[in-house]
């Protein structure tokens, strides 16, 4: 799909990691299709995760009582957010598809998963969501969920886990993996209007063989060949909780 | 309960906020009981949320391939984590009860909620969880969920929301509020062994009247009077998903 624009928001400290490989093949495959790919490499950028008054470049509406959400909203309208936020918002604005590539776990044993980033994304990526997807840019009232401002865009979470697939089932020790996707896919991305493509979950690459890891990377590259033909998931509670 | 130790991990930028009031009355009430209360005021501390190699004060196990979880585990065993992590771990270690006091939303309208921190906690608090609750300190293998290292401690999430209670029901626009507690209470705190006390959720203080806000603060102070007699919740999927 020549001409499509893709933003990859990438959060891993080590370029040679499995996450780094997934990011690299995505860039290659999407470039091959003629897409324009931008990568926000959050650790390399030392991206600021803290939501503070430094995010407001201009004068505060109420310097005596700081409300982050209110100040960010007003600053967004006046284009006086701090430049790192504006830079990221421009990348999101231009993108047809935003891929979030990160790691949810890291192993110190061959046997059990460690939820290093606690059933969620690392704080550096959480901070990207807190600060970049602000009111006035990503949503407003009206203008959320199906009418969120980013409703013409696709989003896809590509996560690696420490745990094996069988741990993430309804009866497994960590519950169905879809449970922990609820706050990210529905509460965050869908709220902003994004259509959600099925997540790409690479289970337990650290305990896989070299060959299995290569297969996981290859299957991601393979999926990307037809990514523009995919239908979004129906992002409602039954997808997550099977009601 | 004189002699009990409580750590309040507090994440709000504005001391005069409703969150600030909830924190203040908790300190007052617990002091009145003779408890020793410590507050980690994350924004005031400018707490670092990013998990990077700076967290390892000593020599890395593998400087050529950085795995955060592995390096943090080894550094924890050798007591060579960076000092801000060690300071927080000491506070957790000494506490009988850890209260997390934070805000999940901030309003810019009287009518609809804004999930400012995206169905989760702000990145600064997420980063506290990522970095402080590391393997070797909070859990190991064996040693997680009911046998997590912090199993003799209680934890309680005290959250304020932007949205009103009726939005956080199974049929409400944001789903049952318990859905978004799963990654925090179960995936994080229970994984480390904490017994979970029922969450204290103050719905939509920004659209409440001054009197209603005072009532919410008073009911939190009232609950704390008998907090040591409370039984933990049964922290399993039925509590969250009603199966």
UniProtKB/TrEMBL annotation, chains A, B:
Gene Ontology MF terms in the entry: dihydronicotinamide riboside quinone reductase activity; metal ion binding
tRNA processing listed as a keyword: no
Statement: the UniProt record of this protein carries the keyword Zinc: yes
InterPro entries reported in the protein's UniProt record: Flavodoxin_fold, Flavoprotein-like_sf, NAD(P)H_dehydrogenase_qn
Main localization, broad class: cytoplasm
Source superkingdom: Eukaryota
Cofactor(s) this protein requires: Zn(2+); FAD
Catalysed reactions, semicolon-separated: 1-(beta-D-ribofuranosyl)-1,4-dihydronicotinamide + a quinone + H(+) = beta-nicotinamide D-riboside + a quinol
One of the record's GO cellular component terms: cytoplasm
Subcellular location: Cytoplasm
Flavodoxin-like fold domain mapped to chain residues: 4-102, 112-224
Pfam family, one: Flavodoxin_2
EC number of the protein: 1.10.5.1
Top-level EC class: oxidoreductase
Keywords: Cytoplasm, FAD, Flavoprotein, Metal-binding, Oxidoreductase, Phosphoprotein, Zinc
Annotated family: Belongs to the NAD(P)H dehydrogenase (quinone) family.
Protein function: The enzyme apparently serves as a quinone reductase in connection with conjugation reactions of hydroquinones involved in detoxification pathways as well as in biosynthetic processes such as the vitamin K-dependent gamma-carboxylation of glutamate residues in prothrombin synthesis.
Description of how the protein assembles with itself and partners: Homodimer.
Protein name, as recorded: Ribosyldihydronicotinamide dehydrogenase [quinone]
UniProt organism field: Equus caballus
Lineage summary: Eukaryota, Metazoa, Chordata, Craniata, Vertebrata
């Amino acid at each position: 799909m020549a001409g499509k624009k893709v933003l990859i928001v990438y959060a891993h400290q080590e370029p040679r990691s499995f996450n780094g490989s997934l990011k690299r093949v995505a860039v290659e495959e999407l470039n091959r299709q003629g897409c324009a790919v931008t990568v926000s490499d959050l650790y390399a950028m030392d991206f600021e995760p803290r939501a503070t008054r430094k995010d407001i470049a201009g004068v505060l509406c109420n310097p005596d009582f700081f409300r982050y959400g209110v100040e960010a909203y007003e600053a967004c309208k006046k284009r006086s957010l701090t430049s790192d936020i504006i830079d990221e918002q421009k990348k999101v604005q231009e993108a047809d598809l935003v891929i979030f590539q990160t790691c949810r776990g890291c192993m110190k044993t061959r046997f059990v998963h460690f939820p290093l980033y606690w059933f969620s994304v690392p704080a550096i990526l959480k901070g990207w969501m807190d600060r970049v997807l602000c009111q006035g840019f990503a949503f407003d009232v009206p203008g959320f969920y199906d009418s969120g401002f980013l409703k013409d865009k696709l989003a896809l979470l590509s996560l690696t886990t420490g745990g094996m697939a069988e741990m993430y089932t309804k009866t497994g020790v960590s519950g169905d993996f879809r449970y922990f996707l609820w706050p990210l896919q529905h509460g965050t991305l869908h709220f902003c209007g994004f259509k959600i493509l099925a997540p790409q979950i690479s289970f337990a690459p650290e305990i896989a063989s070299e060959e299995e890891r290569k297969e996981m990377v290859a299957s991601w590259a393979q999926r990307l060949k037809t990514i523009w033909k995919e239908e979004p998931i129906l992002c409602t509670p039954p997808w997550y909780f099977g009601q």
